[in-house]
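User: I've been trying to design a sequence by hand for this structure and keep getting stuck. Would you show me what you'd pick, starting by listing the structure so we're on the same page?

Assistant: Good idea, let's start from the same input. This is the structure you sent:
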């Protein structure tokens, strides 16, 4: 049974992998045996993350600088990966800008475009160029990052460009799952709830009332730990999920069940 989750010989790209959930995805994929290429704009942080993960997993992790909003940068990073490994088996589209406390009526066009440009257009660009590699090899697993904020309306923080972008990512996932099925490419999405990343830990320290209120909205009465979601990506990257495509899998402690 364990062999079906073995990713030895697979090549996986994880964007936004220098910290937070992206780092968790990269770590889990590496421990499952994959050669992992981690991508983000901050190369120094990526290099430190790569060294940390590889020292634990025993597998090399490769840092590559990329700006997912810049198509030329995406093309270069994907070409480097394809040329180096001759195939790309898994893409985890994790890079994103986070939610803000700005009400929609006060959102600037610049802020809106920045969030949509990173969260949606960046996901599109990575899918476009990695997808071409996967189409040529007639196989692949794409895992996009939506959010519980893309499934249900969130009352705190307020709704804004982030929520819209994550709903669009879920729609993009479903659309391309149908289109790319003929190439043996599965396209699924994860919709995380509240996870205690370093950024969120700092936020709840400053907003303890928000944290306590959030617990009343989660059936499991707790936030997810940062390292507890990586294995879900391993499942979607492995042979165990071969008959799953177009799914948006909530990992939110039951938040969207209520």
């Amino acid at each position: 049974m364990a062999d079906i989750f073995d990713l030895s010989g697979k090549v996986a790209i994880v964007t936004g992998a220098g910290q937070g959930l992206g780092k968790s995805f990269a770590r889990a994929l590496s421990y499952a045996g994959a050669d992992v290429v981690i991508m983000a704009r901050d190369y120094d942080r990526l290099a430190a993350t790569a060294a940390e993960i590889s020292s634990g997993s025993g597998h090399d992790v490769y840092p590559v600088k990329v700006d997912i909003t810049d198509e030329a940068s995406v093309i270069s990073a994907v070409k480097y990966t394809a040329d180096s490994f001759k195939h790309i088996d898994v893409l985890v589209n994790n890079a994103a800008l986070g939610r803000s406390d700005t009400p929609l009526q006060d959102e600037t066009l610049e802020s809106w475009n920045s969030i949509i440009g990173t969260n949606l257009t960046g996901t599109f660009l990575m899918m476009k160029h990695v997808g071409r590699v996967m189409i040529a090899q007639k196989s692949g697993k794409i895992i996009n990052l939506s959010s519980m904020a893309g499934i249900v309306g969130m009352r705190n923080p307020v709704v804004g460009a982030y929520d819209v972008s994550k709903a669009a990512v879920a729609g993009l996932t479903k659309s391309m799952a149908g289109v790319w099925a003929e190439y043996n490419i599965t396209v699924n999405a994860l919709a995380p709830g509240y996870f205690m990343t370093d950024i969120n830990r700092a936020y709840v320290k400053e907003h303890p009332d928000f944290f306590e209120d959030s617990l009343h909205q989660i059936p499991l009465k707790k936030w997810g730990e940062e390292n507890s979601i990586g294995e879900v990506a391993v499942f979607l990257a492995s042979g165990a999920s071969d008959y799953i495509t177009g799914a948006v899998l909530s990992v939110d402690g039951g938040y969207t069940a209520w």
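That's my pick for every position. To get oriented when you compare it with your attempt: The domain at 2-257 is CATH 3.40.50.720 (Rossmann fold). Residues 51 and 61 are 7 Å apart (CA to CA).
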